[in-house]
Amino acid sequence: ERATGRTAIREALPPQPVARLKLIQSQLQSLTMAIDVVRPPLAQFEQSLDANQKKQFAAIKPVDSNPACGAAPIPTEWAVDEIDHSVQPDDAQRSALAGLKLTFASIAGDLHAHCPNPIPATPLACLEALEARLDASWRAALAMQVALDQFETQLNNQQRTRLEAMNLAQAY
Questions:
Q1: Which long-range contacts (CB under 8 A, 24 or more apart) does 93-100 make?
Q2: Each residue of 35-53: pLDDT tens digit?
């Protein structure tokens, strides 16, 4: 049977958390480059419209109204608790785990701050808001990568194997 959709994506993901974050960063960079390609023609098109057409164009709203942007930042304690439970760090590793928890909370706050609310009025402004959100997501992936890498260097082989076996995306 052929893997499709989400199954194919899961199978393509590397098992190491840091490697997965590097892959995410690469995908975010690709999306940002796509926005850079779309922005000039969209701006040119928008400038070519008369006032009435601009008003009608701005009235077009996306079907999806930011489901990833909630009223509050996403709680991150569960992720660190899951890591703690799975990896079972010793006392010397607890400070690195606490640092990981602080980093995750900071990332959640930054991502929340880059959720456009309300949705921008014009398609070009929506594109710019999306670019800001992608940039915040790239910074988040990088910060998570650094924090996880620092934490992972303090783990023994058994703990590292348990960390790699975790699927934090499914836990959310």
A1: 93/151, 93/154, 93/155, 93/159, 96/150, 96/151, 96/154, 97/151, 99/147, 99/150, 99/151, 100/147, 100/148, 100/150, 100/151
A2: 999 999 999 998 999 999 9
